[in-house]
Amino acid sequence: MNETADTATPATDPAAPPPAACRNCGSTLHGPHCYACGQPVKGLVRPLGNLFGDLMDSVFNIDTRVLRTIPPLFAKPGFLTTEYFAGRQVRYVTPVRLFFFLCILAFFVARLAIDSGDGLDVNINDPEAGEIGAAMTEAEVIVRRDAALKRFNDAKAKIPDSPGKGGAEVGFDVQADQARSTAETRIKQLRDAAAKGEPAPAAMDDTFSFGKNGAWDEKKNPVHVPGAPKFVDGWFNQKIGRAKQNIKRIKAEPAQYVETFVSSIPTALFVLVPIFALMLKLVYAFKRRLYMEHLVVSLHSHAFLSLNLLLVFACMALQRLVPANGLATDLLGWCIGLLITWMPIYLLLMQKRVYGQGWPMTLLKYFALGTAYMTLLGFAISGAAIASLVWM
């Protein structure tokens, strides 16, 4: 009987500690996370040295994956995407994190490259030319208008020759249109006063004009969006007022506008990623792939574009550091040209490798997608440029 009792009740060490329990739900812990509620064993309330060690471990873990991800992303079109579809995912940086990291880094370097240039320090508000609305004769209005238009064109010419330059020019085009509109309004005021035999009217304030409704005013002459409720009209006119104030800031600090514009481009690209995935879904409808698969293709495509732009902006920044008209400048110029040329070639090869269609259909779909995407990109960049007038 003693032998039976010993078998039924195994001996336990009375000195052994009880198993650890989750502090949230009380379940027995079997690892670094609770299997019942998911709470991690390690919280933030612990020595700072431990937290720093975990942070460094995470960073170095990401770094090892970056070293395996960046080279094929740049040099092997479609490789990362096919690896992802094949189930080999943990060894590489995830598509979302990869695109987010490279996009933000690329345009951070772009801001540094643009800020380091001396060509954007343009004084648009030339005191010798004066304000158009303060001119007292028609001839003086024309002289000041032409001088203002010349300054805007000079400022546009000094924007760095880089991707997105066309969008950055939109702000200066808006100012040029405003200068022409102000000149027309001032000339009409002077002519009406002369016809009545009255002296020239007082200097006019800066105004916005929309269509034939005359000068914009948030209270007296607001813009009405057809079919929109009252609160939408209020919001829209408030933003117009902010843009009007910011145009005065652009006259004094054009570089600040370009910086704000460059900062807004990543947001535009984030919006285009899911749209481009939808375009791929429509073009390759007979492939019966899930939308999420096309989204992975879109994320890897935009991650490559961000990486390529990062290298372009880095070369532009280096050009400012090396002696002008030297061998290094020429080599960097060649590098920029090759990087820009590699973009469409890479995307074509990637599309061919991922979707596996013949060259005739791949080329047809590539050019159709490219045309539609460049149109959307133009709208996105122009929208970013106009939004910069409001949010700067």
TrEMBL record:
<keyword id="KW-0812">Transmembrane</keyword>
<protein>
    <submittedName>
        <fullName>DUF3667 domain-containing protein</fullName>
    </submittedName>
</protein>
<feature type="transmembrane region" description="Helical">
    <location>
        <begin position="331"/>
        <end position="349"/>
    </location>
</feature>
<keyword id="KW-1133">Transmembrane helix</keyword>
<dbReference type="Pfam" id="PF12412">
    <property type="entry name" value="DUF3667"/>
</dbReference>
<keyword id="KW-0472">Membrane</keyword>
<feature type="transmembrane region" description="Helical">
    <location>
        <begin position="370"/>
        <end position="391"/>
    </location>
</feature>
<feature type="transmembrane region" description="Helical">
    <location>
        <begin position="261"/>
        <end position="283"/>
    </location>
</feature>
<feature type="transmembrane region" description="Helical">
    <location>
        <begin position="96"/>
        <end position="114"/>
    </location>
</feature>
<feature type="transmembrane region" description="Helical">
    <location>
        <begin position="295"/>
        <end position="319"/>
    </location>
</feature>
<dbReference type="InterPro" id="IPR022134">
    <property type="entry name" value="DUF3667"/>
</dbReference>
